[in-house]
């Protein structure tokens, strides 16, 4: 329990340092929007544990360790397993990194521009 940090709001300027300093990023939400924090975490080299009911499994595919958010013991077991097995954390991170090229801001901007262009062309 002493090793778990729940910092609350983190200013954007400090966010990367928190991700870099973490062993895992844990997202125990029942619902999550896009899952940007998971992408940011992986980009900083920190693997992710997330609820199976969020968008994060779709965003990171087989690069995220999931659990049923209605099963707290499953969450605890997943965290413990990954903390006890650094090789599994490394493999998880490697798989997650394969998804990162899909989520580039320049590609997002182009896709958004194209949507607007297509909407106004109709």
Feature tags:
122 residues, 3 strands, three-stranded parallel sheet, elongated, 6 helices, mainly alpha
- The number of helical segments is 6
Tell me roughly what share of residues is in helical segments.
40-55%
N-to-C span: 57 Å
Cα-atom Rg, whole angstroms?
A: 16 Å
Mean pLDDT: 93
Tally of DSSP β-strands: 3
Please identify the structural class as seen in this structure.
mainly alpha
3D shape: elongated
The ordered string of helix (H) and strand (E) elements is: HEHEHEHHH
Physical arrangement of strands within the biggest beta sheet:
1-2-3
Residue fraction in strands: 5-15%
Uncertain stretches: none
Q: Summarize the biggest pleated sheet.
A: 3 strands, parallel
Can you describe what's shown?
By secondary structure, the chain is mostly helical. Helices cover 53% and strands 9% of the residues. The protein has helices at 12-21, 36-43, 56-60, 72-84, 86-97, 105-121, and strands at 25-27, 48-51, 64-67. Helix 3 links the parallel strand 2 (48-51) and strand 3. The longest helix has 17 residues, at 105-121. The radius of gyration is 16 Å and the shape is elongated.
Draw up the topology in text:
Layout: H1 12-21, E1 25-27, H2 36-43, E2 48-51, H3 56-60, E3 64-67, H4 72-84, H5 86-97, H6 105-121
Parallel strand pairs: 1-2, 2-3
């Amino acid at each position: 329990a002493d090793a778990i940090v729940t910092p609350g709001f983190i200013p954007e300027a400090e966010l990367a340092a928190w991700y870099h300093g973490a062993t895992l990023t844990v997202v125990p939400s029942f619902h999550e929007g896009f899952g940007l924090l998971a992408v940011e975490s992986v980009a900083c080299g920190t693997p992710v544990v997330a609820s199976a009911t969020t968008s994060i499994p779709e965003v990171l595919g087989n690069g995220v360790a999931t659990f049923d958010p209605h099963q707290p013991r499953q969450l605890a077991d997943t965290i413990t397993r990954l903390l006890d097995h650094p090789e599994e954390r490394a493999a998880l991170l490697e798989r997650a990194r394969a998804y990162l090229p899909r989520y580039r801001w320049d590609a997002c901007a182009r896709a958004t521009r194209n949507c607007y262009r297509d909407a106004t062309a109709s």
